[in-house]
Every structure is written in structure tokens, then in C-alpha cells.
Design brief:
Largest sheet: 7 strands, mixed
Number of strands: 13
Strand order of the largest sheet: 1-3-2-4-6-7-5
Radius of gyration: 19 Å
Oligomer: single chain
Helix content: 25-40%
Number of helices: 10
Distance between the termini: 28 Å
CATH topology of the largest domain: Rossmann fold
Structural class: alpha/beta
Length: 282
């Protein structure tokens, strides 16, 4: 376990986010602002943990008084596999981004990503998913983490597309039977125009683009990239050039999933108003 140089770990009743890389994480700032709004102090660190080292890192963190962890790439599946108790959301995702530690060392896993995405779109962007055609790009951990949350909103059709057909077929099989779905070949266009397009691939992190027929953007209500950045992502820029009405990155999702984590640990759902704006100017 490697702690970022500016963070002091060892205080009781503390929390953290782990991943690799982790220096860029905004989670400590977000959680400190949540607590600040409630007039509280919340001890939250960021710790670099290499893939395959999470179990030992958890044991070490618990030994210093740690009570819970947020988990980011590449550790979400690992967090799920070593947990003792798993929420329905974690089971549906097959991954965990939230861990809490009982006094007996029991590890409880949850996944707040779907909550974060849906809350950001429905409340912050004022866009309902119910009755809409939703096009989800990607079939990795990020897509699986939000799949159940999207399906629970009762879209009229959930379209799935991914470079590897076998992966998107497996993803399709995870969707409740009550939710209509369609597999769209990578780079092609369905005969049904999507209302909302969500990019759950990580391609924007490197400035790359998923293979998609760009003519779909002009008639969409929202194009959403789950990656967040200080400036519009390559996917957002493409959508804007092609006439998309509304585009957004995933910073609001990050804030809302953090709020749900805070609630699970502390029992109160923090206010998130203005947090995203504060982060953009931070």
C-alpha cells in the first residue's frame, strides 16, 4: 500500500479511496465538502494500491482505524471477489466501488455507480430515462456497473454496442427480461433512433473515440460521457459538432456516487448542489 505523500493515514474512523493511479482523485475533496456542509470533519484519504494487493491493503487500513473504502480502477472486481457481504447492486454489477468494514473485520461491498449516473441524469440534468431509447456504448466494468440502474428506469429500449460481440452478448443476458434490449453492431446504426447515448468506454481517457455512426447525435436529447475531464472529452466534442442538443461528462456522476457512499457510511445523504461547479473551478 502506497499513500500519496500529502496524506496522513493512521487516524481512527477514517475512510479512503484506492486505485492505481490515484493521485488525480477528486474524492477526498468531494467528501470534505460534504462534511463541511454538515458542519462535520470527515477523514478521507487517497491511497495507491496495485492490482492484486487489495486484500493486504484493506487489512493494513483496518489496522490503522479505517472504516471504509471507495474503490476505483483497476480494483473493483477484486473488491467484489474478496468481500464477505454483497448488496444486490454489487451482485448485479459483479464489481464493487464501496466497502465498509465491520468490527469483526467483515467486508461489506456495494456499488454506487448506477445510483450516481441515474441521479446525475435525472435530477441534475433534468432528463428522464423512463420510456426513452437509451444507447449504452461499452461492455466492461463501467457499463456493467450502471446497467441495472438504467434498466430499473424502464427505458422503452436499451441498446448495447461494444467492439467485442461476445462481451456485449453477455451484458445483454444480465438485463432483466422485462427490459427490451437490442444489440447494435459496433460502428453501425440501429433502425431505432436513440434518445440518450451513454459512453461507458474508457476511450476518452486517451482522446480516442468509440466506433459509432455519428449521424445518431443530431436527434438525441442527451449525449453523456462517463469519463470526466477539465475540458470537453473527445466524445463530447464529436457529439457537439454533429448537433447533439445536450452533452455532459461524468463529473456529476462522480459527485452523486460519492454522496451515496457518504450516506452508507454516515447515515445521511449530503447535499450535492454546487459541488460539481466547485470542482470545475478547483
Amino acid at each position: 500500500m502506497v499513500t500519496e505523500p500529502s496524506i496522513k493515514v493512521g487516524l481512527p474512523n477514517s475512510y479512503c479511496v484506492v486505485g492505481d493511479p490515484i493521485a488525480h482523485s477528486l474524492s477526498p475533496k468531494i467528501h470534505s465538502w460534504f462534511a463541511e456542509n454538515e458542519g462535520k470533519t470527515f477523514l478521507y484519504h487517497k491511497i495507491r494500491v496495485a492490482k492484486g494487493s487489495l486484500k493486504s491493503a484493506i487489512e493494513e487500513f483496518i489496522g490503522t482505524g479505517g472504516k471504509g473504502m471507495n474503490v476505483t480502477v483497476p480494483l473493483k472486481e477484486e473488491a467484489y471477489s474478496i468481500s464477505d457481504v454483497r448488496s444486490d447492486r454489487a451482485v448485479a454489477a459483479g464489481a464493487a466501488n464501496f466497502l465498509s468494514f465491520g468490527d469483526n473485520g467483515e467486508i461489506t461491498a456495494d456499488n454506487t455507480d448506477g445510483y450516481g449516473l441515474i441521479t446525475d441524469i435525472s435530477r441534475n440534468l433534468n432528463m428522464a430515462l423512463s420510456g426513452k431509447v437509451v444507447f449504452l456504448l461499452g461492455a466492461g466494468g463501467a457499463a456493467r456497473g450502471v446497467l441495472d440502474g438504467i434498466a430499473a428506469q424502464s427505458p422503452s429500449l436499451l441498446q448495447l454496442s461494444n467492439r467485442t460481440l461476445s462481451k456485449v452478448e453477455k451484458l445483454s443476458n444480465l438485463i432483466p427480461k422485462s427490459c427490451p434490449r437490442e444489440i447494435v453492431p459496433w460502428g453501425q446504426m440501429s433502425t431505432t433512433q436513440p434518445d440518450i447515448i451513454i459512453n461507458a468506454t474508457s476511450l476518452s481517457l486517451t482522446g480516442d473515440l468509440p466506433k459509432i455512426n455519428s449521424s445518431v447525435f443530431a436527434l438525441t436529447e442527451l449525449v453523456y460521457d462517463m469519463v470526466y475531464s477539465s475540458k470537453p472529452t473527445s466524445f463530447m466534442e464529436l457529439a457537439s459538432r454533429q448537433g447533439a442538443k445536450n452533452v455532459s461528462d461524468g463529473l456529476g456522476m462522480l459527485v452523486e456516487q460519492a454522496a451515496e457512499s457518504y450516506r452508507l457510511w454516515n447515515g445521511t445523504l449530503p447535499r450535492t448542489e454546487n459541488i460539481t461547479d466547485r470542482l470545475r473551478s478547483y
